[in-house]
Amino acid sequence: MLTETRWGYYDYTDRHEPDIPADAGQGFDTLLVWTPFVNEAAKLVENDVVTAAEIDTGARLGGNWPEGPLDKCDEGGANVILRKLTEVATRHDRRTNSPKGSTVTCWVRR
């Protein structure tokens, strides 16, 4: 069981800290993390629940993200996000070749 120490939840006094190589995440496709967030954020904006600026501000300030999901979409392009959503959907949903509920197809803020 983890107990909080005055330095955080991990106490390495009895053993060495884990050795994680600097290139451990090299080659990881970060779009696998970003695309679901972009898709859900686009749905919220589309349904007038929140504005794009509020989503991105909330992600940066509340989640300590480097940028918001819709900023990320603007940076890479909605077509890149949609392509990744479609790729993941075809790997996981054998019944269809398109992502269910994807609203990112025409997301543009500029």
Task: Give the topology, please.
Blueprint: H1 31-46, H2 52-63, H3 69-76, H4 78-92
Describe this structure as you would to a colleague.
One of its GO terms (biological process) is fatty acid metabolic process. GO terms for molecular function: oxidoreductase activity, acting on the CH-OH group of donors, NAD or NADP as acceptor. The chain is an all-alpha fold. The protein has a domain at 31-106: N-(1-d-carboxylethyl)-l-norvaline Dehydrogenase, domain 2 (Orthogonal Bundle), CATH 1.10.1040.10. Helix content is 46%, strand content 0%. The protein has helices at 31-46, 52-63, 69-76, 78-92. Helix 1 packs across helix 3 and helix 1 (31-46) packs across helix 4. The protein is extended. The N and C termini lie far apart (50 Å). The model is unreliable at 105-110 (pLDDT under 50).
**Radius of gyration from the alpha-carbon trace, in angstroms:** 18 Å
Rounded average pLDDT: 78
Spell out the helices and strands N to C: HHHH
The CATH topology of the domain at 31-106 comes to: N-(1-d-carboxylethyl)-l-norvaline Dehydrogenase, domain 2
Largest sheet: none
The best one-word shape is extended
The CATH architecture classification of the domain at 31-106 is Orthogonal Bundle
CATH superfamily of the domain at 31-106: N-(1-d-carboxylethyl)-l-norvaline Dehydrogenase, domain 2
- The assigned structural class equals mainly alpha
Question: What's the β-strand tally?
Answer: 0
Helical amount: 40-55%
Number of helices: 4
Ends apart, CA distance between termini: 50 Å
Give the CATH level 1 class of the domain at 31-106: Mainly Alpha
